[in-house]
Amino acid sequence: MKLLNKNSVKYAKLFFEKLTSLQILILLLLAISQTLVAQWSTQSPIPTNLNISGIGAPTSNRIFISTDDNSFDDLGSLYESSDGGENWIARDIPASLASPFFGLFFLDSQYGWLYGNENYRTTDGGTTWTELPLLGSTYFMKFYNPNFGVTTGNFGIYISRNGGTSWEPSPNEIFAFDFVDEQIGYGVSSNGIYKTTDAGLTFTNVKTGFAESVIYLSGSKVVGVVDSIFVRSTDAGTSWSTISQTQGKNNLVKVSSDIILAYGKTDSFPDFDDRVFRSSDGGQSWNDLGEILTSSTYYGSFAFTVTSPQNIVATDGSGNMYRSNDAGLNWIQTFTTPNGMLPFYLGSAVPVFTDAQVGYFGYGQGFIIKTTNGGDSWIQISSGSGSTINDMDRFSNGDIIAVGEYGTILKKESGSNKWIIQTSNAQTNFKAVQVIGLNDVVAVDDSGKIFTSNDGGINLVCIIFCSSGFINR
After folding, report:
1. 415 lies in which domain range?
2. Is the pLDDT of residue 467 over 90?
3. What are the residues whose beta carbons fall under 8 Å from the beta carbon of 271, sequence distance 6 or more?
C-alpha cells in the first residue's frame, strides 16, 4: 500500500472541507460502486429490446433466436439458450456486428440458416456458423433438404443446390417448392406449376396459369392453387382436375396424406376475411371452418405447425396461439398475447417444435414462450419488455415489481432470475411504484394518475385523477 506524506494529508483535508455533504455522498457512492461492479448481473434475459425475427430449436433444450440490430452495442443478432430458455448468451454473429437478421430456419437438428443483410449456415446444430455469399437484403430463406433451397429479397428470387454456398436466379421465377424426395419436387410461379426429377437441375411446366401454392400429399397425389382455383393431380402432375374457387385461400398446409388446410387474408383492414378451409379427402372437396384465427394486425400472417397427424399449433399474426387436436377440425385459443406485444413486421418467426410436446415461439421485443404439452398451454420464459423501466420496489417476501412506459408491469419472484410481464389494462407511462403492504402496491404515471393494487401488482386500478390526469406539480 502506498503511504501518504504530510502534504498529501494536508491537501486531502482541505479538499474534503470544501465539499458539500451531497458531493461527499456522491464520492462515497462512486467509491462503493467501483468495488461492486463484479456483483451486478443482468436480471432480464437478453435480448429484451430487440425485435425477434426468427426462432429455431435443433433440440428440445437448445434454442436460437435471430433479431434486428442495436447499433449502440457490440453484440450480434443471434442469441442462444442451451437449457430450454433459462439462460441466454449473445453469439458474435453477424461478423460485422451491425446488421440485422430477418429470419432463422432449421431443417433438422443439424442444418440451419440465418438470413438478413448477411447470411450464415450451420451443419452442426448451431455450434459453428459459416458465412454465405452476400446477396443483399434477404427477407426469406427456406431449404427443402440439406442442398436445395430458395431465397427472396431486394435482389429477386434465387435458388441454391449446394446448401447456400452458391446461388443463382430461380428458373421461371419459381418462388416456393415442395419436394417428394431428394430428386422429385414441385414449384410454383406466376407461369404455373413446375416439376423437377433431377434434384432441381431442370424444371418442366406441368400446369399453366398463375400458381400460388403446391403441396405433395402421397403416392402420386399433388394439390395446388392456380388462377385462384384448387387443382388436383393423381398422376404426379401429368394431368390436373379443377376443383373449386379458393376465395383467396392461397396458402396450403399438409396435415396428412388426406387432410389439407387452406388460408389467406382477403378484403381490407380492419375487416379482413380470415377464414380457413379444410379438405379431408386429399383436396377433392373443401369445407369452410370460418375465422378460427383472427389477426389484429394488417401485416400479420397466420403460421401453422403440424406436430402430428392430429395435432396442429397455429399463431394468428398477433402473437395469440391456437391448437387443434383433431387434425384441424376444431380449434381452441391456448395463449393470449399481452397488450401491446406484436410480432416484428419483418419477422418470419413461426412456432417450432422439437417433438410432439416441446415447442417454442418468439416475437416482439424479446418475448419468448414455451409449451411442454403440445401447445395446450404456454409459459413465458423471458420478460419480453422492450420498454423503458422507470421504477421498481421490493415486497417483504423478496418478490420485485417494476413499472415503465406503455403500461409495462414486470414481476420477479424471490430466488428467480425471470421477469414475467403482467397484462396491464392501463395504457400509460408509469413513473414510480411503491410497495405499501404484503400485497398492496401504489403507482403513479407521468400525467399524475394514481393506481393501486391489492394483488401484488397483477391488477392496477386508477383511483385519483383518472379522468383528467391533472395534478399540481
Report:
1. 387-473
2. no
3. none
Closest CA to 421 of 366, 344, 373: 366
Q: What is the pLDDT of residues 382-405, one digit of tens each?
A: 766 667 788 889 999 999 998 888
3-state secondary structure of 97: coil
pTM of the model: 0.80
Q: How many CB atoms lie within 10 A of CB 339?
A: 16
Enumerate the β-bridge partners of residue 204: 195
Which tens digits make up the pLDDT trace of 46-61? 666 788 899 999 999 9
CB 253 within 8 A of CB 261: yes
Domain boundary among 316, 349, 380: 380
Q: CATH no. for residue 310? A: 2.130.10.10
8 falls within a domain = no
Cα–Cα dist 370/285, whole Å: 36
Domain total for the chain?
2
Q: Compute the half-sphere exposure of residue 30: CA atoms within 13 Å on the CB side of its CA.
A: 6
**Domain assignment of residue 167, yes or no:** yes
Pair 370, 440 in one domain: no
Query: 439-465: per-residue pLDDT in tens?
Result: 899 999 988 888 998 988 888 888 888
Count how many residues are written for the chain.
473
Tell me how far apart the alpha carbons of residues 54 and 416 are, in angstroms, rounded to a whole number: 27
Render pLDDT for 420-433 as a digit per residue (tens, 0 to 9): 877 676 778 899 99
Indicate if 192 and 310 belong to the same structural domain: yes
